[in-house]
Write a structure and sequence with these properties.
four-stranded parallel β-sheet; disordered C terminus
Length: 260
């Protein structure tokens, strides 16, 4: 996963450099083609790339495989699994709840969830969870998760795994990438809104932002879903590289995608 995300981020920044330094469409196409061909030949990129300039599409290309084992090619209907990039959506919903005064970043976790003893829950704040400074680890590495990984597990099942894991450090004293922390944030969102994560996503993000192809993970596997190959959707103005449509994101992987 890290390998694909690394090359994707590289592509974004290189595209930005190319587009600002090389204004003619032909030059852009040649340089982007060269970059993509090299990445694809090395087996580190499969996906779709769209570049627009002043509202006009100047580049579109799909390459690589939706399934490297069967060599099933990517096409315009391929759905991409964005994996941990969904954390940006979770963060945005938390920001919205804060703006609506439904939570504060300084709120203690124990105000919303009782998955930890009070003395621990009172040490963890919403901001620490967002910043991955709460001491939570990664449920994906827990053997108990392997028992449900390929089943239709629920939020509570994940929380039951997370709450048995000891904190890796005292909240606020260090930082470590944490999938568990963002599951907990998802549970906080559900607690505050009294709605499922999927419903609140549709209500607050999908419909307002017209993300018609960005959908929650389907209960049954979709044969078109591609894992670990995000699409790049870039919007370029005369002065700078802009990301569309989420202003908070440094990089956008929007259309078409599947959300966890």
């Amino acid at each position: 996963m890290k390998r694909f995300l690394s090359i994707t981020h590289t592509l974004v920044f290189l595209f930005g450099t190319l587009l600002q330094a090389q204004p003619d469409d032909k030059g852009i196409v040649q340089k982007v083609d060269s970059l993509l061909n090299d990445a694809n030949a090395k087996g580190i990129f499969s996906g779709q790339v769209t570049i627009t300039h002043n509202g006009e599409n100047i580049y579109y290309r799909q390459l690589g495989y939706a399934d490297w084992k069967t060599k099933r090619a990517i096409d315009k209907n391929t759905i991409f699994n964005i994996g941990s990039l969904n954390k940006q959506f979770t963060e945005e919903i938390i920001h919205q709840l804060s703006n609506e005064s439904k939570l504060a970043y300084t709120d203690k976790l124990s105000k919303y969830l009782d998955i930890y003893p009070t003395e621990i829950g009172n040490k963890i704040t919403i901001q620490q969870l967002l910043n991955m400074e709460a001491g939570l680890g990664d449920y994906l590495e827990n053997p108990k998760f392997e028992e449900i990984r390929f089943k239709e597990f629920t939020m509570n099942e994940l929380l039951n795994i997370i709450k048995t894991e000891p904190l890796l450090f005292e909240p606020g004293t260090s930082k470590r990438y944490s999938n568990s922390g963002y599951v907990v944030l998802g549970a906080v969102i559900e607690k505050i809104t009294n709605k499922s994560y999927e419903k609140i996503y549709r209500q607050e993000l999908q419909l307002p932002w017209h993300l018609t192809c960005t959908i929650p993970k389907q209960k049954k596997p979709h044969k078109q879903i591609v894992h670990l190959a995000p699409i790049l959707l870039l919007k370029v103005t005369k002065s700078a590289l802009m990301i569309y449509p989420i202003a908070r994101l440094q990089v956008a992987y929007i259309l078409p995608l599947v959300i966890y």
